[in-house]
Design brief:
Elements (H helix, E strand, L loop, with lengths): L1 E4 L5 E4 L7 H15 L3 E10 L4 E12 L3 E3 L1 H11 L2 H21 L6 E4 L2 H4 L4 H12 L6 E5 L8 H14 L2 E7 L6 H6 L4 E4 L1 H4 L6 H16 L3 E4 L5 H9 L4 E2 L10 H11 L16
Parallel strand pairs: 4-6, 6-7, 7-8, 8-9, 9-10, 10-11
Antiparallel strand pairs: 1-2, 3-4, 3-11, 4-5
Helix pairs in contact: 1-2, 3-5, 5-6
The structure holds ligand C2E and magnesium ion (3 copies).
One magnesium ion binds next to strand 8.
């Protein structure tokens, strides 16, 4: 294991990326079996606008390994990516998410769901058509699905990636650019990708209230995104002060533990129902005292 420090100075342990250690092979085999046995679940995290309206939910994959316990998605997704299992994982996630969307719609809960897709998926021939077929099979309109991509999709064969994304948006699927600020964040990328939403990476949001440079980066990103007609979502919002700063900077929506962590489906249903048409309200304790 290798220790790395993230921007907040917290140590993060990462499995070494070298490919064929027995540990990785073991985990890969286990993941394959877990998918077949439906032991991988999706949790859902709300994206809310500043008026409290629920803009959508992000599906986040969860795997509890029978012996190792919770395996962080970042870890097994890297393994799936480098082993060729990614298309299978993505099919599984899309299938599960669309099944859930259909269920919610049948209960009168019309909330769009975002699914994370990897660069590998975008480069899989026929991906756009396969997504459209899956939507049709579940009777879910394309507008109820959003796909979160990262700038990494443009690293290899940008033309093919652009064609696939154009195909998807042609069907009416909305695209969101995830983790903005961590990759190349080039204006060329933004112009090339047919996205309607940009998500500011958590690493800039985390210290927004105390770090003036991060605040400036967020301000510029919001302005840039708006000038391109994109919606801006901030991820990783954990406290009130950050929420207020983001609102003042003109950000459109937030996602983070302040609102809710990713929840299992039943809990998400209860959460959505409890919000009703009033939307999400900040806890009263956090609001200025009424006099
Ligand atoms: P992401 O798409 O950027 O997802 C946001 C991550 O931030 C999630 O981590 C979420 O649980 C976490 N998060 C949300 N709010 C907060 C907060 O307030 N504070 C903090 N500290 N963290 C927060 P998670 O679920 O561990 O997922 C990590 C990454 O794994 C995701 O980053 C995404 O890139 C990937 N991932 C997750 N599910 C899938 C999937 O189904 N398919 C693919 N291809 N990738 C996935
Ligand atoms: Mg995401
Ligand atoms: Mg993200
Ligand atoms: Mg991320």
């Amino acid at each position: 294991y290798q220790a790395k420090r993230d921007r907040t100075g917290v140590e993060v342990y990462e499995s070494k990326r070298d490919s064929n250690t027995p540990d990785r092979l073991g985990l890969l085999g286990d993941l394959r079996r877990a998918l077949d046995a439906h032991e991988v679940d999706l949790h859902y995290q709300p994206k809310v606008r500043f008026d409290g309206q629920v803009a959508g939910l992000e599906a986040l994959v969860r795997w509890v390994h029978p012996e190792r316990g919770k395996v962080p998605p970042d870890e097994f997704i890297a393994i799936a990516e480098s082993s060729g299992l990614m298309p299978h994982l993505t099919e599984y996630v899309l299938e599960t998410a669309l099944g859930q969307v259909a269920k919610w719609r049948a209960q009168g809960l019309h909330v769009p769901v975002a699914v994370n897709v990897s660069p590998r998926d975008v480069h899989t021939p026929g991906f756009a058509g396969a997504v459209a077929a899956r939507l049709a099979r579940h009777g879910v309109p394309a507008g109820a699905l959003q796909l979160e991509i990262t700038e990494h999709v443009l690293l290899e064969d940008p033309q093919r990636a652009a064609d696939t994304l154009a195909g998807l948006t042609g069907y009416g699927v909305k695209m969101s650019l995830d983790d903005f600020g961590t990759g190349y964040s080039s204006l060329v990328h933004l112009r090339r990708l047919p996205v309607s939403e940009l998500k500011i990476d958590r690493s800039f949001v985390a210290r927004l209230a105390v770090d003036t440079e991060d605040a400036e980066i967020v301000r510029c990103t919001v302005d840039l995104a708006h000038s391109l007609g994109l919606l801006v979502v901030a991820e990783g919002v954990e406290d009130d002060e950050t929420w207020e700063r983001l609102r003042d900077l003109g950000c459109d929506a937030v996602q983070g533990w302040l609102v809710a962590a990713a929840m299992p489906p039943e809990e998400t249903t209860a959460w959505l129902r409890a919000r009703g048409s009033r939307g999400w309200q900040r806890p009263a304790a956090a609001l200025p005292a009424a006099t």
